[in-house]
Each structure stands twice: as C-alpha cells, then as structure tokens.
Amino acid sequence: MKKIKIFFQASFATAKKDIISILRYKTWFISVLVWPILMPYTFVFLAKGLAGPTNEGIDNFARLSGTTDYSSFIILGNLIWMFLNMIMWDGGLKLNSSRRIGILDTLWTAPSPRLAYVFGSAISSIVINFSPIVISTAFFSMVKIISFKANIFDLLIYTLSILPFIIGFLFIFSSLTLRSKEANLVVHAVRVILSILCGLQLPIGVLPLFLQKISLSIPITLYMNCIRDSIIKGQGISYHINSLIYILTIGFITFIASIVVFKLTEKKVKNKGLISGY
Asked: What share of the chain is helix, strand, coil (3-state, %, to 5)?
C-alpha cells in the first residue's frame, strides 16, 4: 500500500511540474486555442477544392466514409491526429527531453519509482493536449461547422476506454528512448503510419483491403469511428458495444505488456550502464 501511495505521489508531482512548466509561458494559448482551430481548416478547404465546382465528389466521399458531412469527418479526425502527435512528442519522448537538458541521470537514480515519472508525464500530456480537442469541438459546433449530435456521456466513455492503450503506447515509447538516444525518427514514422492506417485524415475505404483489415485491428481506428458516428450521426454506445469491448481488451493487454517492456528495459539500462549513475 505504501509503494502505491509513493508511486502516485511521484506521478502527480511530475504531472504538476509539467503543467506548470507549460502554463508559465504566455504563448501556451496558441497551442491550446489557436492552432487546433486553424489547422483543421486547411484540410476542409482542401476538401472543398477536391469536391469539384458542383460538389460532384461528395457522393464518392460518402461511399467511402459513410457520411456526406466531410467537414465534421475531417475536422474530428485531424483533432485526434493532433492529440496523438503531441502526446507522442510530449509524453512518449519525455525521457528523451530530460536527457537533452541533462536531468535524466538525476531522475533515473533518484529514490522514487521510475515508471511513476513516465506515468506522470503521460497524464500531464494527455490532460494538456486533450483540452484543445474539447475547446475546438465546442467552437466548431457553435459556429455550425460540426453537426454535434452526440451524448456527452457516450464520448466520455469512449475516451476513457482508449486511455489504457494510449498510456501503454507512451510507456513503450519511453522504453525506446532509453535504448536509443535518437528516437525522434520513430515518432515521425509512427505518426504518419497512424494518420494513414487509423483513418484520421482520410476514410480507410481508400486503402487496399489488406490495409483496411490491419486498420480495423488498431484501437485508435475503432475509437475514431465511435467518435465520428456519435457526433455526426448521433449513434449511442449500443451501436459500438463490440468495438468498445475490443478497445478495452487490447488497451489493457497493451498497458500490461508495456509495463513488462519498461521493466525489462530498466533492467537492461542498469546492466549495460546506459545511465551514468550506473
């Protein structure tokens, strides 16, 4: 019980430190309020151009995506893509950032759970980067660009269900940081792969059939489908109960596996002397 208390104390201390570090600079509102509103618009304008002068491309889009509301489809996908992109940089590579500024050795050899530092960074990253999604969705709904038909409670359930997978994903990235001093290339590769396979910026219907099967096995794809169907079509949880169960199952498996991977990496770091404290 005492170890659990220490773990969460260290986690919340790390999360608090990260949040304060971001909010202390006056430019934080650009990433929270301005960028999430302007960035999705670029793709909406692109879609308007590709639709043709008489919107003849809408029928083809509807056949591939299941909806004619391309603005809502594209904006929601891009907001989730921005969220995943930022948490990979902020949360997944937090240890890499600590290495660059020269405090990783001190943190790693401190008498506190090492996983707590990564967990706290993941929590702060999720909180900081998910807030713009909520604000932007509310803004686009108020100006009638997004047709918001969802039940807020349903959206909350979907979001909570994907958290174990996302946190586990960040733990694995943190393990990669400890093994490799140059993990940035992996982030660039993964975010492009996720944007394509998970249907964040385009309907998965445009992918080859074998890639569509892979796409539908990724929890983020199913989460994105749940969010879009809930907001655009007003579908409730009953329409996606199987997807919800799958997301939770794969999420907890990923979470547990990521802890095992992190512990093995932690052991390797100690045996190989990858941290100067060893």
From this structure: 80, 0, 20
| Residue 158 structure tokens | 């979907």
pTM of the predicted protein model: 0.83
- The alpha carbon of residue 153 and the mean position of all alpha carbons in its chain are separated, in whole angstroms, by 20
C-beta neighbour count of 110 within 10 angstroms: 13
Distant-in-sequence, close-in-space partners of 215: CB < 8 Å, separation ≥ 6: 197, 198, 199, 204, 207, 221
Is the pLDDT at 148 greater than 60? The verdict is: yes
Give the model confidence (pLDDT) of 91-142 as tens digits: 667 777 777 777 777 777 777 787 888 888 888 888 887 877 888 888 888 8
If pLDDT is split at 50, 70 and 90, which confidence band does 256 have?
very high
Helix (H, G, I), strand (E, B) or coil at 112: coil
Residue 214, pLDDT above cutoff 80: yes
Count of other CB atoms within 10 angstroms of residue 229: 20
Cβ-contact 74, 216 below 8 angstroms? no
- Percent of the chain having pLDDT more than 70? 85
* pLDDT of 5: 81
Contacts of 26 (CB under 8 A, 6+ apart): none
Q: Which of 189, 123, 138, 169 is nearest to 262 (CA)?
A: 169
- φ/ψ region of 147 (left if φ > 0, alpha if ψ in -120 to 50, else beta) reads beta
Whole-Å CA distances, 168 to 14, 110, 165, 185, 203: 18, 23, 5, 20, 26
Going through 109-165 in order, the beta strands assigned E by DSSP cover: none
